[in-house]
Structure formats: structure tokens, C-alpha cells
Design a protein that fits this description.
With 402 residues, the chain is α+β, with helices and mostly antiparallel strands. It contains 14 helices and 12 strands.
């Protein structure tokens, strides 16, 4: 990839690109780096197919006194734009990598050592073994792993797709800096191998009701097909489309429309899992709230989403199972058998709020990875699992205090 970057620099070196003429005498426009600084501008210029021409240049060709000459200028502009896009993306990718590495080293060395580029490797090797392991771990934390056979075209496709998906969820997506798009796009598309036994390994994750906690939503489940007969409506039913090797249904997820991306981490609680065929409308077309069946609860999940992240990027940190009231004794006996006697919550809900929510009683169990709660309501029973990470997030953000 570095060899290709050198080739690109011949086509478009930083000085030439920064001050290139952006409009020819025929009115044909070429992009400049300033056009690519926001996600909207980058997508408009770099998201076009090689055969596509911008609407401005199409109009300029039609109005040019010499159409053949203008058409050649369009071809030249297309090549220049493509080279600029690849060079700009390479700069962001390499810049993010260098910045990440420098940030790690800056926490372990003085300014004088950091400025000594020749002696920095010697300084790193002189660290105590424990600190050296820490530096190595931090260097490989939260980074993409791009192999040498990955092409710039593939990297470009990944970033363009990420911006396209991002645009569907964030109405202000055009104004987000392009530099904020590259790292999460590459981390998602080119994840680093995970050492077995670490908390990030999905096969080592805590599982509750078949859901792996602490593992990303998108790596476990696909979004449910959502095809209403008319825009703004809901479909008549949901049917999970996939099955595993044994013929068991793989759940799919649906977010009810309350989640929007933000510049801050957030807990999305409006996500449902569907593990069986579910009718959503009655014969008159009225909406039917998903309801539990005997032995089969409805499933809600909490997803912790990073800043500027897509919903699928977030990790599942909580599961809420809604059962029929007649199953409350069976559920409690099962929890006591597995986790022992429960205990009441430290901070009880006020009588007014309990009445408002129809809550009769609540009991908690500590699990080591978080907590389980059994909530008995007037007309339903909930078994809720939360990881320590979600509990801490709610505490820091003062959620669910009554």
C-alpha cells in the first residue's frame, strides 16, 4: 500500500493538489482537498463510479463551444478526482495510524524522547517487560488490521459504504468530518484477530438466552426484513429469514425508530429480537403489540453504541425477557436454583412509580459479570440481564432513578 501511495503522489503531490486549478476555461471542474473534508463532499466526489460525471461537468460540456475538447477535459478531471480521492484517503489512513501510535508513546515517554526518531526504538526496547507488554497491547487496541494484499480500491469501497449507511441514520451526516468516518469504517471491515481467552472473543463471551453479551449487535444478528405495503406503515408480519446448520431459527433484530446517531456514547433500548414468526397486524390492519407465548418470551436488548457509531457497531449489554404472568413461579425457582437466594434492590422505586409501572415486586441476583432481576408486574413478568458495563453506564448517566 505504501508503494501505491508513492505512485499516487506522482499523480497528485500535496503541493500540486492543494493549489490546483479547479475550473478549466470550458467550465470543467476538478475537485480539491477542501471538497473532501466533510463526509458529504467526500461521498459526492469519491462515491461516483469511474464512468459517472458530475452534473456540473455534464452541464459544462453541453454549453462548451468545443464539445470534443470539453469532453477530454472531463476525462482528465475524472482521473484527477480519482487520484485525489485515493491520495486523500491514504493520507487519512496513514495519518490516523501514526497519530494512534504517537498517542500511545506520548503516555510513556517524554517530549525529548518522542522527538528523537532515531532513538525511539531503543527507548521502547529499554522499557520493563510489564510496561512493554502494556505498550504493545495499547498499540493494537481499537485499530484495523489491513493486510498487504488489501487494495486502495477495497479500502475506498469500505469507507464509501460506511458513509452511505451512516447517512441513513444521521440527518446531519454531510457535515461530519471525513476523518471521523475512516477509522470506524476500517475497524469494522478489517478487524484484528482476537486472542482466545480475552473478553473480546465472542466464543468466550457470557451468553444469556442465546445472546452473547459484550459482543457487537451486527456480528450476531441481521436486521429483520421490513417491507410494509406502503411508506410509513409497518409490515403485516415479521419472519426471521435465516436458520443455522441444525435447522434452528436465527433471530433477527428490529429497532423501532427511536435511535439516532450522536456525538456521544449512548444506550439504545429500543431494539427487539424476533426468534419466530410474528404477526404485527390484525385482520383490520390494526397494529398488534408483540406478546409472549407460553414458554416463549418477547426479547428486548440494550445496545451500547459508541460516539458516531451505527447501531450495529454497538455491543449488546442487556437482555429483557417478557413472560406471561403464569410463569413467574417457574422463573423464580429457576433463578434460585442457579444463583441462590436473591436480594431486594438497594434503591427501591417509590410507591407512586411502582403503581405507575404496575410493578408488584423486584428481586436481584449478582452474577459476577453483572446482575439479573426478576420483575413481577400486574400483567407480565420480566427477567432482565445487565452487564456491569451497562450498569456503570446507567449510573454515570443517572438513568432509571425514581
Amino acid at each position: 500500500m505504501r508503494i501505491l501511495a508513492l505512485a499516487l503522489s506522482v499523480l497528485c503531490n500535496p503541493f500540486a493538489c492543494a493549489f490546483a486549478q479547479t475550473t478549466t476555461s470550458s467550465g470543467i471542474q476538478t475537485a480539491s482537498p477542501s471538497n473532501l473534508q466533510t463526509a458529504g463532499g467526500f461521498f459526492d466526489v469519491c462515491g461516483r463510479e469511474a464512468s459517472q460525471v458530475s452534473k456540473e461537468n455534464r452541464a459544462a460540456v453541453g454549453n462548451a463551444p468545443n464539445v470534443a475538447e470539453a469532453f477530454q477535459e472531463v476525462l482528465n478531471a475524472t482521473v484527477a478526482d480519482h487520484a485525489l480521492c485515493l491520495g486523500y484517503l491514504n493520507g487519512l489512513t496513514e495519518g490516523w495510524k501514526e497519530g494512534h501510535e504517537h498517542g500511545v508513546l506520548a503516555t510513556h515517554f517524554s517530549t525529548e524522547v518522542l522527538r528523537d526518531y532515531v532513538g525511539i526504538n531503543t527507548a521502547i526496547k529499554s522499557l520493563p517487560d510489564e510496561e512493554l507488554r502494556t505498550v504493545h497491547k495499547e498499540m493494537n487496541k481499537d485499530v484495523p488490521c489491513l493486510s498487504d494484499d488489501v487494495t486502495f480500491g477495497e479500502v475506498m469501497d469500505v469507507v464509501i459504504k460506511y458513509i452511505r449507511d451512516f447517512s441513513l441514520k444521521n440527518p446531519l451526516w454531510k457535515y461530519v468530518p471525513t476523518s471521523r468516518m475512516v477509522a470506524p469504517a476500517l475497524r469494522g471491515a478489517f478487524p484484528c484477530p482476537v486472542t482466545l481467552g480475552t473478553a473480546r472473543a465472542s466464543d468466550q463471551a457470557q451468553t444469556f438466552h442465546g445472546v452473547k453479551l459484550g459482543v457487537s449487535l451486527g456480528s450476531q444478528f441481521k436486521e429483520c426484513p421490513w417491507s410494509p405495503t406502503k411508506k410509513g406503515d409497518i409490515p403485516d408480519f415479521i419472519s426471521p429469514p435465516d436458520k443455522d446448520d441444525k435447522g434452528n431459527t436465527i433471530p433477527c433484530f428490529h429497532e423501532v425508530g427511536l435511535f439516532t446517531q450522536g456525538a456521544y456514547p449512548q444506550a439504545a433500548w429500543s431494539v427487539q429480537l424476533f426468534d419466530h414468526f410474528q404477526i404485527l397486524k390484525d385482520a383490520k390492519g390494526n397494529y398488534l403489540q408483540p406478546a409472549p407465548l407460553p414458554g416463549t418470551p418477547t426479547i428486548g436488548i440494550w445496545v451500547l453504541v459508541p460516539a458516531l457509531g451505527l447501531l450495529r457497531d454497538g455491543t449488546i449489554e442487556g437482555v429483557s425477557l417478557d413472560y406471561l404472568t403464569l410463569e413467574r413461579d417457574r422463573l423464580k425457582n429457576s433463578l434460585v436454583e442457579k444463583f441462590g437466594a436473591g436480594h431486594p434492590p438497594e434503591k427501591k422505586m417509590s410507591p407512586e412509580m411502582m403503581k405507575y409501572w404496575g410493578l408488584i415486586s423486584e428481586e436481584l441476583w449478582d452474577t459476577g459479570w453483572g446482575e439479573l432481576s426478576l420483575q413481577i408486574h400486574d400483567k407480565e413478568v420480566f427477567v432482565i440481564a445487565k452487564t456491569s458495563r451497562l450498569i456503570g453506564f446507567e449510573r454515570e448517566n443517572k438513568k432509571f432513578e425514581f
